[in-house]
Design brief:
165 residues; 3-stranded antiparallel beta sheet; 10 strands; binds FE2/S2 (inorganic) cluster; alpha+beta; 4-stranded antiparallel beta sheet
Amino acid sequence: MQRREFISKSLKSTAGLFAVSVLPLGLAACGSKEKTMDTSTMASLGPLAKLESGEFPKKVQYNVKIKDAWTTQDLDGFVYVNKQEDGSLIIMSPTCTHLGCTAGDAEVSSQEKGVRYFCKCHGGEYDEFGKNVSGPPPRPLDTFESVIQDGEVYISVLSPVKREA
Ligand code: FES
């Protein structure tokens, strides 16, 4: 996937002007319909204003209860969020695209060389935007599309978006 496509799927910084948005700002501004969405099975990443502020990249924790007909899953997890050149946010899964271990923070010495996330299982390395830069991971970290409702940012944690290498 090209960087441009990747950006278009990410959260735009001013999309919070709309009650609900799953579209980049430009598209959302054209399609002026506001709608409500059931976010009860989505994970909240907190207020947009808070997500957009502070240091980047950042780690954001979530907890979500996902119900189906018979069971309720209580999931705790986290995502990585970074601000891109155009001001939009990218929300990334920490799940390594090699075999599914969790990619954590790289050592400071590696970060100085552009490696932001490191997967200990087999030495996978990713940059601050989740691009795979070394080791066995075949593609960048997956991302999440976001929904903004009443100023809160939500993601569907069971529906990450794959990016191409
Ligand atoms: S599972 Fe991450 S490098 Fe293999």
